[in-house]
Structure prediction request, 945 residues.
Amino acid sequence: MTARRLTVTDLSVTFRTPDGQVPVVHGASFALDAGETLAVVGESGSGKSVTSLAVMRLLPAPPRAQISGKVTFHRQGRDLDLLELPERQMRRVRGDRIAMIFQEPLTSLNPVHRVGQQIMESIRCHRSVSSEDARRQAIEMLDRVGITEPEARLMAYPHELSGGMRQRVMIAIALALEPDILIADEPTTALDVTVQAQILDLLRDIQNENGMAILFITHNFGVVAEIADRAMVMYSGRVVEAGRAEEILTRPLMPYTAGLMRSVPRIEDAGRSEQDLGTIEGFVPDPARMPSGCAFHPRCRHFEGGLCDVEVPPLEDAVPGHSLRCLRWRSLEGARG
Amino acid sequence: MSRYLLRRFGQSFVLLILVSLVGFMVLNLAPGGPLSQFALTPGMSQADLERIAAQMGLDRPLPIQYLDWFWRLFIGDWGNSFRDGVPVLEVIGRHLFATLLLMISSTIISVGVGTLVGVMGATRRYSLFDYTATVMAMVALSIPTFWFGLVAIFTFSLDLGWLPAGNMYTIGDQSFADYAIHLIMPSMVLALVNVAIWSRYMRSAMLDVIDQDFIRTARAKGLPRWRVLYLHVMRNALLPMITLAGLQLPTLLGGALVTETVFTWPGMGRLFLDSLGYQDYPVVMGLLMFSAILVLVGNLLADILVAVSDPRVRLE
Amino acid sequence: MSLADDKTAALPWWQGRAIRRFARHRLAVTGTVMIVLLTLACVFGPPLLPFDELHIDLRARFSPPLTGDHYLGTDPLGRDIAARLLMAGRVSLLVGFAAMLLSTFIGVVIGIIAGYRGGWIGTALMRFTDSFLCFPQIFLLLALAAFIKPDPLMITIIIAATSWMEIARIVAAEIRSLRERDFVLAARMSGASHVWIMFRELLPNAIGAIIVAATLTVARAILIEAYISFLGYGIQPPLPSWGNMLNNAQQYLASAPWLAIIPGIAITLAVTSFNFIGDGLRDALDARSDLK
Prediction:
């Protein structure tokens, strides 16, 4: 029996822009257990990063961004309602109990502070330890994330390290306080493939050791296959399909998910033309000008007029534990055989 | 680091040569060239003028004259004041302290107030405070400094009688407090424009940094707000401000000249105007070149300071 | 970019995006209204006043504002300040505007050549511009002013000669960033001359930045003209300018403060207006402000 770490219920985010109030996340709900990895998948503009920043309460203050819904962090039998928490207490959760790593390891590290400073700063802000202890802990962390000569690296500046090393430093900062939840926002996107694999291995190893939960944001199904236990696909601010990663990877029901997966190049695809590879045509709709009905219908190859463009499909269970938003999935499933 | 500095020194030297060319151009641009001040003297015959020209080496070709002029500029032989025969550099030296005193105290005020206003504007973007500060900065940039000085004298000296209307000290007193009380008004008046400039740039430098990824990281680490603001945002925002401080030097020097004329402050600006009035041309040219060189050196120092405080420059 | 262009092309110019942005900018509109009123007053006002600006009335010396028909009082010679203020406004605004036109012209020519040619000519021109920027403008201006015949034309010329550098740098930077673009190559291949490319293909792209800088240059030119006239090296009496009206004001500061206060307010109003307009234009014309 695993412990629940995070429950997100009906989370919505609206931004104020010069064009008026623009909703970017609509009623997202999900849960995260200790030791498991939930992948949030989608193109840029799908609302996946905004969802994670809303959980951390790192979005601009209202009225620029308005958040509704409920985010509950479960810790040692106590439930913390993160959206209602006073800022002072939220700060204690941030970085200590819920940590975060980002896509661009170069721009995500402060260029004028040494690597060691940036790790120790986090430790000393949450724990009352001497600078000597913090230093020792920082060296330990650098060693743990696979950085050689950690003592020397402590004095390095971010620009003196390679991309992979920088991301390891980011992970060291995030994991220094053994958080219950790690939110990883496309942590491998900016890295080359071999380094990508190393970072994923590292995250999995650490997860196996300490049982933290990972919310992994990505647009890449290859990465989902590598690391995720469960996956949740987002499109235009809505969860459109969710379930066990293996099941979604092998039997995607929502046409968008299927399309996204076709756009991942695979070894078997070598030699095929780009058309066969099946990129999804068109763009993610502008949140200020959402299409009626299913937001995906203008790009969907199975679009049916009078049905798909009328009402937003509800999130329904195809089989227990595998839900999706599509009015036509049954007939499509039947046609596929 | 040393290669960067070497290159930077080289650039400054090239700029110095160009600055001297501009100076030489101004010298010869005047109708009658360097002789014009004699031509205006009554009772000067054409023969006298030619004799003086030969004496000053003005009968030689221009490039030779320039080289000679540049060389003397380089070795510090800047000629003598027409007024009292004192070497130009010595005359400037006597007035340097007053100007530096004024500039430094005014800079302390403008950097202090400007930083505060800029930081508050950036953290409360689009608030009433931010909007008011923006409008006030634009108005401050539009008020003629010399007129603002006059209004200040009228208000605080003539009307209220709180502060002295001019000069650097009371003759016979010259205590620290006496200097200080004389310094208040001129340095405030000079600071007006610079507070406006500094606060505007500080605001936009802060905003540039606030939107960066590493600030999000700092907040995600759960750092307290002041720590994010001062150790992360401001530490990075101050780097471009150092360069700006260097670039603002000509404005500051020009402003000092204006302020000194209104407050009869015995600095380089006052000297410049007096020398203009006496047609003391060597001193005028000397001050012109001296101010440009001061600006050059100031910019060089600013770049060195940036190189020292920005780890990214050090390696290059 | 192309989308926005299509949209604006279909609309008449007064409904264009830049105009709408400018009209929404409260400060810019305030500045425009103030400048228009000030200009109208200076152009049409003097004949409507009971005195002309040179009329000397020694019996009415130092009249404070609102005495008799002297709405703004009189100066040490008994001349009507209101009349002098408006006539001075003509001179000051004209000098400021003309200096802006001339310095913009110099700056654009130097900037466009430096940006387009690159190489050692470009570098030399930019270093030359930098060397001018090392001199505090007022020092350079006064040194020049001491040697010229101080009529309005010469004052305009020397102000322009010491304030073209910023525009040159802006233009050079803009042109340099555009030089390698496809449309330049295309124009080259279709046989366009360098001069054509510089002025007809590249310059229009920098026009927004130039207009903003030019507006701010008017503001600075008015300020600096006022200052050198105040010192006696600028516009010479009896021709009034806002600066030389302040000429003797300092010695009468205790007895007749209005002598100092009134022209100063006029200068501040005019300069503030141009700065407000410049700020509005920056918001309206700067493509980058679209992103914020």
Notes: Residues 1-9, 288-292 of chain C have pLDDT under 50 and may be disordered. DSSP finds twelve helices and no strands in chain C. The two ends of chain C are 16 Å apart (CA to CA). Chain C touches chain B through 45 residues (CB under 8 Å).
